[in-house]
Amino acid sequence: MRTYFNYLRPYFGRMTVGLAIKFGGTIFDLLIPVMLELIIDDVIPTGNAAKIYYYGGIMVLCSVLAVLGNVIANRMASRVASESTRLLRHDLFVKTLYLSCSQTDKFTIPSLESRLTSDTYNVHQFTGMMQRMGVRAPILLIGGLVLAFMLDPVMTLVLVAILPFLGVSVYYIARKSVPMYRRQQSATDDMVRTVRENIQGIRVIKALSKTDYERRRFDGVNKALMKREEIAGLTVSATNPLMNFFLYVGLTVVIVVGAFRVNAGTSAVGKIMAFMTFFNYILNAMLSVTRIFTTYSRCSASMSRITEVLEAQPELGVITVDDTDANADGADGKPAADAPHIEFDDVTFSYNGKRDNLSHVSFSLGHGQTLGVIGATGAGKTTLISLLLRFYDPDGGRIFIDGRDIRTIEPDELYEKFGVALQSDFLFADTIHENVRFGRDIDDEAIDNAIEYAQAREFVENKEGGTGFVLDIKGANLSGGQKQRLLIARALASSPDILILDDSSSALDYKTDANLRGAIANSFESSTKIIVAQRVSSIMSADLILVLDGGVVIAAGTDAELRESCDIYREIAESQMGGAILD
C-alpha cells in the first residue's frame, strides 16, 4: 500500500483539516447522551422549565454542530478521494502507454482495462470511506466506552467482554477475504475480455450464426465470476450477523443488569437511557469498522494489481554502447558512413520462447530503397515490422538503422523516423484533419498533400465539411478502403525517413492501389519504404522482396529474380495475375 499513500501525500493537509472537523462533529455526537442523562436524572426532577429548555437547547445545538461537521468533512473527503484517484488513474493510464508489447501481452488488455476502471473505483471507495468513518468510528467506539464507563462501570464491563470476540471475527474475515477479492478481480478480467471480444466480433458472430455459442461462452465466464463474487460476498457478509449477534447479546445482558441495578437503587433511569444510546453508538461504530475492513479487502487486492503495473520496469530500455556485443559501424552512437539505412543481422525472435516466429532473418536496405515482404498468414511479416519498430527486442541477432543498433537509440528519436500504417490501425472519433495530424506538429499544407498522395482527396471533399468531417469511433462511418487511405495519409503526413505500410492497401481496388504506389514513388523518393502486402502487384517494383514462410526467409531478390528462383512466389503471382506476370 506504499504506492497508495504516495498518492494521498499531496492531500495530507486537506485531510488533516477534514479529519479535525470530523473529530469535532463526532465529539458533539458523544455529548448528546451526556446531556440526555443530565436532563433526565438531574434537571427534570427539579421541575425548573427554564433549565430544561436551556439544556434542551444545548442538545439541539450539539446536534446541529455534529451534522454540519460531518457534512463538511464528508464533502472534503469526497473531493480528496476523487482527486487522488484521478491522479492514480492518470498515472496508470500513462504507464500502460509505455508498457512494452510483451508486458501488455503478459497483463492482457482486458486486465489493464479492469485495473483502470473497477480497481481504481475500489481504491476511490476506500479512500472516501476511511476519511468518513476512519475517524468517526474509532472515536465513537473509544469515546462511547469511556463515557459509558464513567456512567456505569459495571455495565461497561459487559461491552468490554464482547470486544475480543468482535475483533477476532473481523480480523479472521478480513484475512480470508483479500485473496478472494484478488481471484474475483481475475474473473472480472475474463469477463471484460469475453465482452470485448464479442463486441468487436459481433459481425462475424452473426455472419457465422454463432450467437448461441457465444452466449454459452459468456454464461460460462459470467457464472465463474458470480461464483467468486458469491464466495467472497458470503465470507464478508458473515461479519454483520456476527457483529449483531455479539452486540445484541451484550445489549440484552446490559438491559437485564440495568433493570436489576435500577431496582436496587444503584443506578438511575437517565444513566440507563444514556448507556443505551452509547451502546448504539458502539454498535454503529463496530459495524462501520467492519465495513472499513470489507472495503479495505477490496482496496488491498485492487491496489496490489495496480501497483504491479505502476512498478513494472521498462523491458526495452536504451542500452549503452558498451552493452553491445559487436563492434559494428556506428557503435559510437552516430550514423556510420556508407552504412545501410536498415539492416537485419541474423535476427531471431519468438513470442512464447518455444517456437521461433522469425528465424535467422538477414537483409539490408539503402536510403530510398523499397523492401517488399510477402507470405502466407502467420509467416512473420508483421513480426518483422514489430521488431524494426522495437515493439519487441529480438532473441538473437541485431537490427541497425544507419549503422546504429536500434537498442542504443532513444525511443523518441527512433519513432520520429517512422511513418506507419499498420494492419489493424485505429481511427478516432474526431475530424479527418485531426486523425491525419494525430497530435503532431504538422501544418495544414502537409496534411492536404498527404491526403492527396493517399488517393483520399475525392471522398474527403465529398464529405460534409471536408477535412472537418467528424468520424465515428474506429471510422465506422467510412468504408474499408476509405479508412485505409486515411491511415496511409497519416503515415505520409510527416514525410517520414522510413515509411512502413503493413498490408494497409488490401481494401483498395487495383487502380487506386497503382495510383497510390505511383504517388509514393514520385513524392517520397528519399524515404526508405517497407511494404507488407498480399498482392504481388503492390511489391513488384521493390528493390528487394522477401518471401517468408513459417518465419524463415525462403527467398529474397527482385521480382524478376524470384520469378525464376522461387516456386511459391511464382505460384502466388500466377494465381493473382495470371499469365501477365510472365510477360
What does this entry look like structurally?
With 583 residues, the protein is an alpha/beta fold. It folds into two domains: 2-310, ABC transporter type 1, transmembrane domain (ABC transporter transmembrane region fold), CATH 1.20.1560.10; 319-417 and 534-583, P-loop containing nucleotide triphosphate hydrolases (Rossmann fold). Helix content is 63%, strand content 10%. The protein has 20 helices and ten strands. The chain has helices spanning 2-8, 12-43, 49-98, 101-107, 109-133, 136-151, 153-200, 202-207, 211-237, 239-264, 269-310, 381-388, 411-415, 432-437, 444-453, 457-462, 480-492, 510-523, 559-565, 567-577, and strands at residues 342-349, 358-365, 370-375, 396-401, 404-405, 418-421, 498-502, 528-532, 544-549, 552-557. The strands form two sheets. Strands 6-7-8-3-9-10 form a six-stranded mixed β-sheet, with helices on both faces. Strands 2-1-4-5 form a four-stranded antiparallel β-sheet, with helices on one face. The longest helix has 50 residues, at 49-98. The chain is elongated and about 115 Å long.
